[in-house]
TrEMBL record:
Keywords: Glycosidase, Hydrolase, Signal. Residues 35-362 form the Glycoside hydrolase family 29 N-terminal domain. It comes from the Bacteria. Its EC number is 3.2.1.51. This is alpha-L-fucosidase. It holds the Pfam family Alpha_L_fucos. SUPFAM superfamilies: (Trans)glycosidases.
Length: 605
């Protein structure tokens, strides 16, 4: 129960406040930041792909402490999951932080070969232990743990790692935790530690400590390309951390530095240089700011021996390409263990990404967001006159629809430069026949140049190779005056995007569909059952309609239920598209349940 409460609080802090807007002025009004922002961001916008490294004492626990396994995601939080005082934590874990397999040059080579152009390393996480050698008196010696510095005598692990990456030509950034579970003057002081003397935390001292450590990171090492602060809440943001003083000096110490937005509250707040969606891709990107999705290969950022829920290589590629196609950067996390070994599964993923990037990198680096709202076969990125079409799902007939009015000037396969693909005439947009490929090698990239300025058409959904037509939330035209919107995947990357906030019967959604096969289709509606929601929906087209009433039951995940069967007549084939509409006739409770898709599945007869 306790864990649940903690997880809940944590999710509340870090997720539900996504779009919270901080009251602070941009960069706290500190001169030097806004004026130089465009120039400072240039390399970041070119890079598009980076690697995050979570490494600290929690890596030596790997999700297990003194024989007890902590099933929670976010293994780097184990100290909190287990309510472990800092002293016991360090005594137990330091001997397990052996460095036996630690080879920063090998890490750096692996990451460079993955195609990543930058790396962000946890210089210290919430546990309060630093990979860098801090000269702050508390870090050198304290009553709580002895020392907050992790490196063995005569070494500086942070320096060794950063230098190895810099030698491979990568930009390097430091993740720096604003939370500190160890320091007696932090906002979290004594949440985990005893306080026998009744010490009253002095936050001014903690601010000095953070300022001093950030000064060390910015001045004692060759480069600091990003300062990745983590994280704020409504109660503690901006000036609570002494941000004004930090920013005033940081830009002098490192005039080209970028900072993320987590000195302020909310993952999508627009302060700082970089928005930081965590473990989800914002369904429609984030307008008006630069942003970077940080995502995990399994569930946890820090190493966890029992977290074997690894994403497949194609799933990682989807997250990477989807993010870039929406205008963001992708920061893919790796969690080496306490011996310094990167898990084999992570090595394999990075190697496979690297193989794909070595051929297709041009379709990622320096590209911009797709001009199309949604494509049902994959994603598009753009650079100069070129459109990069990333095909993930091959539609029926192997022909993808590119919703453009323009004529094609050139078209070739990225991996072979073969330009022999057919452009198939279609009533709406361009039809392109895609050569067969295996998604196990990553998405197929086609490069297209068209005549004149881009003229985008409304996109039209078509059947997948099994004949099923999926009308997804992403692909819907939303007609709302009451704030219906697409909600995103959040902490479960398999959670589909869904229509949320459907509270009024005069709101509706519609889709345009190119029919390739007339006949009978079962209509299935995928939704997230919730007892506080309910209502009746009608799905209709000229050919007929089906209805469904949500019972307001409770469910854990999205479910598909059958609404009925619909007959699509022969004459529909002749139409450039037909429209389907989903409307609500009644709405109960807090609104309709979230709806992720309506699928039309051809029946046998
Ligand atoms: C979170 C977590 C943390 C993780 C990070 C990555 O706020 O507290 O464990 O390092 O953000 O986005």
């Amino acid at each position: 129960m306790k864990y649940q409460i903690i997880i809940y609080l944590f999710l509340l802090l870090s997720v539900n406040d996504l779009t919270a807007q901080s009251k602070s002025e941009p960069f706290e009004g500190v001169p030097g930041w806004l004026e130089t922002q465009e120039k400072r961001l240039a390399w970041f916008q070119e890079a598009r792909f980076g690697v995050f490294i979570h490494w600290g004492l929690y890596s030596a626990a790997g999700g297990v402490f003194k024989g007890e396994t902590y099933p929670q995601h976010y293994a780097e939080w184990i100290q909190t999951w287990g309510k472990i005082p800092s002293k016991q934590y360090t005594e137990h874990l330091k001997p397990k932080f052996t460095l036996q397999d630690f080879d920063p040059k090998q890490w750096a080579r692996l990451v460079r070969k993955s195609g990543a152009k930058y790396m962000v390393l946890t210089s210290r996480h919430h546990e309060g232990f630093s990979l860098f050698n801090s000269d702050q008196p508390f870090a050198l010696h304290n009553e709580v743990t002895g020392t907050a510095n992790l490196s063995p005598d005569g070494r500086d692990l942070y320096r060794e790692i950063m230098e190895a990456f810099q030698q491979e030509g990568l930009k390097t950034g430091a993740y720096y935790s604003l939370l500190d579970w160890q320091h007696p003057d932090s906002y979290e002081a004594f949440q985990l530690n005893p306080n026998p003397t009744g010490h009253v935390p002095d936050h001014e001292r903690y601010k000095d400590y953070m300022y001093g450590q950030i000064k060390e990171l910015a001045n004692n090492y060759d480069a600091l390309d990003v300062l990745w602060a983590d994280f704020s809440s409504k109660e503690h943001e901006g000036e609570s951390w002494g941000t004004k003083r930090i920013l005033t000096d940081l830009i002098k110490w490192q005039p080209n530095i970028l900072i993320n937005n987590r000195f302020w509250n909310g993952l999508e707040n627009k302060n700082g240089d970089i928005g930081t969606p965590e473990k989800y891709v914002p369904p429609t990107g984030i307008s008006g700011t630069n942003w970077e999705v940080n995502h995990t290969m399994n569930e946890s950022y820090g190493y966890s021996a029992h977290d074997q829920n690894w994403k497949s290589f194609p799933q990682i590629m989807r997250l990477l390409v989807e993010t870039v196609s929406k205008g963001g950067n992708f920061l893919l996390n790796v969690g080496p263990d306490g011996n310094g070994k990167i898990p084999d599964q992570a090595v394999e993923i990075l190697e496979r990404v690297g193989k794909w990037m070595s051929v297709n990198g041009e379709s990622i680096y320096g590209t911009q967001a797709s001009p199309f709202r949604k494509l049902d076969w994959g994603y598009c990125t753009i650079k100069g006159d070129k459109l990069y079409l990333h095909v993930f799902d091959i539609p029926q007939g192997n022909v993808i629809n590119v919703p453009l009015k323009n004529a094609v000037k050139s078209l070739y396969e990225m991996d072979s430069k073969d330009g022999s693909m057919d452009v198939v005439p279609q009533e709406m947009g361009l039809g392109i026949s895609v050569p067969t490929f295996s998604l196990e090698d990553g998405p197929k990239v086609l490069v297209m140049e068209v005549e004149g300025a881009l003229e985008v058409e409304e996109s039209v959904a078509q059947a997948l190779s099994d004949g099923r037509i999926v009308l997804s939330a992403d692909n819907a035209d939303i007609h709302t005056t009451h704030g219906m919107k697409i909600s995103g995947a959040r902490h479960d990357f398999k959670r589909p995007n869904a229509l949320a906030g459907w509270t009024h019967t005069d709101d509706k959604v519609s889709w345009r569909v190119k029919i390739q096969r007339p006949g009978r289709y079962d209509v299935l509606i995928q939704h997230l059952p919730l007892s506080t929601t309910g209502g009746t929906v009608v799905f209709h087209t000229d050919a007929g309609k089906v209805t469904y009433s949500f019972e307001g039951k409770e469910g854990k995940s999205f479910e598909e239920v059958k609404m009925g069967t619909i007959e699509i007549p022969q004459k529909a084939i002749g139409e450039p598209f037909i429209s389907f509409v989903l409307e609500a006739t009644t709405i109960d409770g807090n609104g309709l349940p979230e709806i992720s898709a309506v699928s039309l599945v051809p029946t046998e007869n």
